[in-house]
Amino acid sequence: MTILRPKIKVLDEEHKNSILNEAKQILETLGIFVENEQARELLRNQGVNNEGLSFFIPPDLVEKCLQSVPNEITLYDREGEEHMTLKDDNVHYDPGSAAILYLDENSGETREATANDFIRFSKIVGHLKYIEAQSTALVYQDVPKEAQDWHRLYIALSNCHKPVITGTFKKESFSIMRELLLSCRLSEDDLARKPLAIFDACPSPPLKWSDLTTQSLIDAAKSMIPSEFVSMPLAGASAPITLIGSITQHCAECLAGVTIAQLANPGAPLIWGGSPAILDMKYGTTPMGAIETMMINLGDVEMGKYLKLPTHAYMGLSDSKVPDAQSGFEGGMGALLAGLAGVNMVSGPGMLDFESTQSVEKLLIDNEIAGMVKRLLRGIEDRGTPFALDILKDYSETEELLSHPSTLNLFRKELFIAGPIIDRMSRDAWNNAGANSARKRAKIEAKKLESKPAIKPIDDNLVKELKLITTTHLK
Known about the structure:
The protein has 17 helices and 20 strands. The chain is α/β, with parallel strands linked by helices. It has a domain at 67-378: Trimethylamine methyltransferase-like (TIM Barrel, Alpha-Beta Barrel). The chain has a 5-stranded parallel sheet with strand order 9-10-11-13-15. A 4-stranded mixed sheet has the order 2-3-1-12. Strand 2 and strand 3 form a beta hairpin. 46% of the residues are buried.
């Protein structure tokens, strides 16, 4: 029995309530800018007032829509087996999505990604114990531009069995991506009952839902495919400089998304998430590893939990350009804080340089960090009294406890068994093994993992079906 799960909070109940009420007031008085005609029609049908493309959503409609959002989402793998559930304080990690660059560990250079890079990346993710979901992590340039969003889903499904976090770059892509997902299920109803993918939906700060993002939200809702809000307030630029002001804006943008999705299809599964940042006043950049960025994320997640919704955040990232000490401490701090906050889906392992770059080396290091965080979250367990008295009595007879029954029975439960990325060898053993840094050990491990057989090999018939869909649409 766990005595107490470690937790962190940045908001009290009074301020959560104030943020929620103000977010509703923002939607009612300032309104939300809605580009998508289907969404505008849904809002008009509810009698929502508008001035041009700005719609003023009343609080009672927001509350009504909140009531129909499911409190949890169970995701299934490619083969239709239950994989994980987003609820309460369950914590899961996935690589972040849509990096435009790839850090080549062989050359040490950052370059544009290729489809082969993403194939390799996906295969490696399939073997990582603590990265429970995959993502369409890389945008590669060696396919036609109009296929860049759905082709990534094809590669992901073909090379890894885990659920996928993905998204569209153009409205026409959703139907193709849905077709790819349906190839892994028996029917539309089966896909709805056993969701395999989450679609990111990114409102544009401040207070705007674009045509593309809104269409994805509506299409996913109609198919009962989970959508994940990725609201991106930039404190000091496109959001208030105050952290609590950015949290409030995030809340308003996500509440508008809740309203649109539930009007499209009541009961549609949604995830309250985001990728906020501060504006670095020295360099004019958007640091994902800044402590204030992490604090905004924590507040956003607490608001999602306050509304009893599954939660998401971009945390565990680094603004460093290579997997170095900065990458380690920023990634480690973010992953740990996300774990302590109970974020259901944490996107960011593997990401460098303001979300622009994916690194297999960092991904493998982050997998170990995620494992350590999960051990922390299990907490200290009460395994019965006396806690130490009887064990210490036995020590007087043998003068060691390594062979004691309690050690042999419990060491795998009490201890996190570190993987090959973490160095805990003696100095002599470390020297004999090549005196490698964590980054070099990650590079070696990546080569081993990419050549290992898949944990769940893909069915040959599914390979053919996915390839047929892809070939047809590329033509």
